[in-house]
């Protein structure tokens, strides 16, 4: 094994704003991981995993939870639970479950997406109703999936009354409703409500511990006890049975305990960055800046991102003219001001 030594030819990183997945476990998390009681989770015998699943279920108001290595896995297991081959999944345009999950809804569950328009990530409930397919000439609708906050739309929030209206459509049409809630704690923080005010509308919810909440690994799927029993089988099929996973769940428990309260600060700093970039002449849609994600439109995004990286500020080029910044708890006010000086120089 080669040791990683500091490379004097590389610039110091002032702020890593590529994603909220880049956070590293805090010393307190490391300590909890070291001390965690563990067992074989494929047998359901890891006490720390069980505690994490119970806590996630309590916070979101579900009967049961199932810990998995990634949000892709929790989402795809949910799709497998709710659909049959040849069906459609109604989802907002740009949804992670299709755009960033590598065709897995087709590869694993044999289903295809039916996008509905979603300005600022919010689908119109009537558009969702119109997207439902029933005729013998069409692939029938198997489920509806929402994303809150919506990543590609800029970390945007679905208003609670729209959620309720889409839930009513799902009920009237007899369709299961899933939430890709990778950042649902951000949505709750932005609206000043308990997360259960959002999750209560859904049959299953996927939450990510490894985004803004700050855990190194993991997501939890929430639903009924019967659904989670079936989900356990799909998780094993996908290679997601993790044995003594309590070392990871221990960090997840701290992420659930301490993470949500930090998100308001991330949102405030995202707003600060957006306003600073706007003032410096960048093209920013402030209406889309609602949580911890900021998209900036500029020419030749990849070249600009590598110039900023040379100066110590990391961002993601997500298209020829689109750069994404994501705030998280390991970029505080001071680091952000340093980053702003670089970005507006
Ligand atoms: C990050 C993310 C996921 C899950 O991604 P993994 O990398 O598989 O954990 C799911 N949905 C959204 C909206 C995300 O941003």
Kindly summarize this structure in a few lines.
With 345 residues, this protein is an alpha/beta fold. The chain contains 13 helices and 13 strands. Strand 5, helix 7 and strand 6 form a beta-alpha-beta unit.
Keywords:
globular; 345 residues; seven-stranded mixed sheet; Aspartate Aminotransferase, domain 2; binds pyridoxal-5'-phosphate; four-stranded antiparallel sheet; 13 strands; alpha/beta; 2 domains; Aspartate Aminotransferase, domain 1
Give the strand line-up of the largest sheet.
2-8-7-6-5-3-4
What would the CATH topology of the largest domain be?
A: Aspartate Aminotransferase, domain 2
Order of helices and strands: EHHEHEHHEHEHEHHEEHHEEHEEEH
Structural class category? alpha/beta
Can you count the helices? 13
User: Beta fraction of the residues?
Assistant: 15-25%
Hetero groups in this structure are: pyridoxal-5'-phosphate
The proportion of residues forming helix, as a percent range, comes to 40-55%
The overall pLDDT, averaged over residues, is: 96
Organism: Deinococcus budaensis
Cofactor: pyridoxal 5'-phosphate
Modified residues (N6-(pyridoxal phosphate)lysine): 211
Pfam families: Beta_elim_lyase
């Amino acid at each position: 094994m080669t040791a990683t030594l500091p490379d004097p030819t590389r610039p110091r990183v002032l702020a890593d704003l590529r994603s909220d997945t880049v956070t590293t476990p805090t010393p307190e998390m490391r300590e909890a991981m070291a001390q965690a009681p563990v067992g074989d989770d494929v047998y359901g015998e890891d006490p720390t995993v069980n505690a994490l699943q119970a806590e996630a279920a309590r916070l979101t108001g579900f009967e049961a939870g199932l810990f998995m290595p990634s949000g892709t896995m929790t989402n795809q297991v949910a799709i497998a639970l709710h659909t049959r081959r040849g069906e459609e999944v109604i989802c907002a345009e740009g949804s992670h479950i299709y755009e960033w999950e590598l065709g897995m809804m087709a590869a694993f569950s044999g289903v295809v997406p039916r996008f509905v328009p979603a300005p600022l990530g919010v689908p119109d409930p009537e558009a969702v109703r119109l997207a439902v397919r029933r005729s013998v000439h069409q692939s029938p609708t198997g489920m509806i999936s929402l994303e809150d906050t919506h990543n590609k739309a800029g970390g945007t929030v679905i208003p609670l009354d729209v959620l309720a209206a889409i839930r009513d459509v799902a009920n009237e049409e007899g369709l299961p409703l899933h939430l890709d809630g990778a950042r649902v704690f951000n949505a709750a923080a932005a609206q000043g409500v308990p997360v259960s005010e959002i999750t209560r509308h859904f049959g299953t919810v996927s939450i990510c511990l490894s985004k803004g909440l700050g855990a190194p690994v993991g997501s939890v799927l929430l639903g009924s006890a019967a659904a989670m029993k079936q989900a356990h089988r799909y998780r094993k099929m996908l290679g997601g049975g993790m044995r003594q996973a309590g070392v990871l769940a221990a960090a997840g428990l701290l992420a659930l305990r301490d993470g949500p309260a930090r998100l308001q600060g991330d949102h405030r700093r995202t707003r600060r960055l957006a306003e600073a970039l706007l003032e410096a002449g960048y093209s920013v849609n402030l209406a889309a800046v609602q949580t911890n994600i900021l998209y900036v439109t500029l020419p030749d995004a990849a070249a600009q991102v590598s110039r900023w990286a040379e100066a110590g500020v990391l961002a993601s080029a997500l298209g020829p003219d689109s750069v994404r910044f994501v705030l998280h708890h390991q970029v505080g006010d001071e680091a952000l001001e340093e980053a702003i000086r670089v970005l507006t120089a």
